[in-house]
């Protein structure tokens, strides 16, 4: 209630666009370009595949857990629904309410999962700060909009970080295995 109550028309617009899934498409494309540039080898294929797996695992696990836990979002909680400040979706004209259930946040899991995974790939302090700041802002926007409780965000973030780190380790092991097993005879350009 506190986070949702600190609002203004300007912040409503900003938070809607922060939480809107297609807003970040240019950033995802930038990540792919940077990964291709940094690796310049067959390993980039595994890096991109496992990045997609991070988001898929985070998203689908959140859907599964929501179906098991069935805790209503704040916007669908009868005692809270009329007390929340709801932001209007500019496309539909309807208030942003999200689906029926909200534990845990797929936005938080996806963004923190991507941040943890990409941090391990970039191995750069500035990228780490940027990626986790981005994940925190995306997660905050979900509470601002009133579609998640703080615990939804915390559990989603922790789940995402665990999945991101796990996929990073699996990516390295898979790439090393394929290098030894199949790519030993192939000379890949490794210049940087």
Question: How would you describe what is shown here?
Answer:
This protein has 8 helices and no strands. The relative contact order is 0.17. Helix content is 68%, strand content 0%. The termini are far apart. By secondary structure, the chain is mostly helical. Helix 2 crosses helix 7 and helix 6 runs antiparallel to helix 7 (125-144). It has one domain.
Instruction: Compute the number of helices.
Output: 8
How confident overall, as mean pLDDT?
Answer: 91
**Strand count, sense and closure of the main sheet?**
none
Beta strand %: under 5%
Q: Supply the number of structural domains.
A: 1
Q: Identify the overall geometry.
A: elongated
Helix and strand composition category: mainly alpha
What's the β-strand tally?
A: 0
Topology (SSEs and partners):
Blueprint: H1 2-5, H2 9-19, H3 25-39, H4 43-69, H5 78-81, H6 106-122, H7 125-144, H8 150-181
Brief sketch in words of this structure:
The protein is an all-alpha fold and 192 residues long. 68% of the residues lie in helices and 0% in strands. α4 (43-69) packs antiparallel against α6 and α4 (43-69) packs antiparallel against α8.
